[in-house]
């Protein structure tokens, strides 16, 4: 692995950071959060038109840039620094890889160019609070998280030569505003239940949706109610019978998403640390900056080491994704822990202003807590990796390869 950035990658990061500095400062961020969509459509268009961000990891044949998850992770590190609210995570990190992996030729040709251009936004709708489970980050995704044929979740049945969906989904990232919904539903009843993915237009008849309050306002979430909603099966009709293919694609997408989210969390942690260092260099106590006190130096040095370690793990996980290995879950755990520590220290060392609504410190802390609720928590991410490698099993091998992680190649 070569950890050095290429000239193109470095230029992309500089350009994106400059754009976000100009278009997503503290004032612009708060204004965007108060809109019905929860993000600034003008900023999203700028990210798409000027930098091609939504299509970074989409093949050129479908109108994308043709890069890899590594470039997408580097881009998300910058959006994480600014806590930029946008449909990037829901559209490009969660939905686009699934369409690319499971879609028919016609579905790819019809959807990927619009997703890559940013003209179409998308959301992955997973029933309940099971996103981490569905993506195989905290356990086996072969269970009944999508409904299991019983009441609850989302059910799908054949009708008039097509499919109809029934059910309710909450905690859907950008589900209230996405133009395309990718809904996980169960078919076949209780006896032959299997999970499938269905494409649903955001404005389809029978879809009721809205924005819901979330701990992290920079991660807008919506709720969905589906009542006799027409849907299109993602993939071939006969291929949909293979539940393992769908679950495998969700697992692969989950590991890549974890690597990207780890980089995003590292960006947020780095910015929280940077702001704290600036503050302790200016705030004085007993006639000297508090940053000159040894106790404060030690605390910030510990945070710096933790952030740099998390960055190394995130970069490796992104590289591993491209090379057929899986390390996203472990990197995400380390990055979320670093962000939580950096944000907590930021609140404490900012003193009286650190916990006020007007200051941005609490937004970074809520990002850490919100991501853990959505994709963790940290101890479960690590426990699943430990279980998959047999770390605590009697007679376990002395060293397990990353390729042997749960769902690994």
Automatic annotation (TrEMBL):
Which segments constitute the Acyl-CoA dehydrogenase/oxidase C-terminal domain? Answer: 259-386
Q: Name one Pfam family in it.
A: Acyl-CoA_dh_N
Q: Which InterPro entries does the record match to this protein?
A: Acyl-CoA_Oxase/DH_mid-dom_sf, AcylCo_DH-like_C, AcylCo_DH/oxidase_C, AcylCoA_DH/ox_N, AcylCoA_DH/ox_N_sf, AcylCoA_DH/oxidase_NM_dom_sf
Cofactor(s) named in the record: FAD
Q: Which terms does the record give in the GO molecular function aspect?
A: acyl-CoA dehydrogenase activity; flavin adenine dinucleotide binding
Q: Return the similarity comment.
A: Belongs to the acyl-CoA dehydrogenase family.
**Protein's name in the database:** Acyl-CoA dehydrogenase
Q: Lineage of this protein's species?
A: Bacteria, Bacillati, Actinomycetota, Actinomycetes, Kitasatosporales
């Amino acid at each position: 692995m070569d950890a050095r950035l290429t000239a193109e990658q470095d230029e992309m990061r500089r350009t994106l950071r400059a754009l976000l500095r100009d278009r997503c400062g503290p004032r612009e961020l708060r204004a965007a959060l108060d809109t019905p969509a929860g993000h600034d459509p003008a900023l999203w268009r700028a990210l798409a038109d000027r930098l091609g961000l939504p299509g970074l990891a989409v093949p050129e044949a479908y109108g994308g840039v043709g890069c890899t998850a590594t470039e997408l992770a580097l881009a998300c590190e910058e959006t994480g620094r600014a806590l930029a609210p946008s449909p990037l995570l829901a559209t490009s990190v969660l939905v686009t890889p699934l369409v690319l992996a499971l879609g028919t030729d016609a579905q790819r040709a019809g959807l990927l160019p619009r997703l890559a251009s940013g003209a179409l936004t998308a959301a992955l709708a997973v029933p309940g609070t099971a996103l981490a489970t569905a993506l195989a980050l905290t356990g086996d995704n072969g269970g009944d998280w999508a409904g299991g044929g019983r009441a609850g979740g989302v059910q799908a049945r054949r009708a008039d030569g097509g499919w109809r969906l029934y059910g309710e989904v909450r905690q859907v990232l950008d589900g209230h505003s996405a133009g395309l919904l990718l809904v996980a539903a169960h078919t076949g009843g209780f006896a032959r239940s299997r999970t499938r993915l269905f494409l649903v237009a955001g404005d389809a008849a029978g879809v009721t949706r809205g924005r819901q309050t979330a701990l992290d306002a920079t991660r807008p979430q919506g709720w969905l109610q589906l009542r006799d909603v027409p849907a299109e099966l993602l993939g071939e009709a006969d291929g949909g019978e293979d539940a393992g293919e769908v679950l495998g694609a969700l697992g692969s997408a989950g590991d890549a998403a974890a690597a990207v989210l780890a980089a995003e969390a590292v960006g947020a942690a780095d910015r929280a640390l940077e702001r704290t260092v600036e503050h302790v260099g200016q705030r004085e106590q007993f006639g000297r900056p508090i940053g000159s006190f040894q106790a404060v130096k030690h605390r910030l040095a510990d945070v710096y080491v933790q952030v740099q370690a998390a960055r190394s793990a995130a970069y490796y996980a992104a590289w591993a994704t491209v090379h057929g290995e899986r390390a996203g879950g472990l990197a995400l755990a380390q990055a979320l822990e670093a962000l939580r520590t950096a944000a907590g220290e930021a609140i404490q060392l900012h003193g009286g202003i650190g916990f006020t609504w007007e200051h941005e410190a609490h937004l970074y802390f809520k990002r850490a807590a919100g991501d853990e609720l959505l994709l963790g928590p940290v101890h479960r991410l690590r426990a699943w990796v430990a279980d998959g490698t047999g770390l605590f099993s009697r007679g376990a091998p002395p060293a397990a390869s990353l390729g042997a992680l749960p769902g690994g190649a």
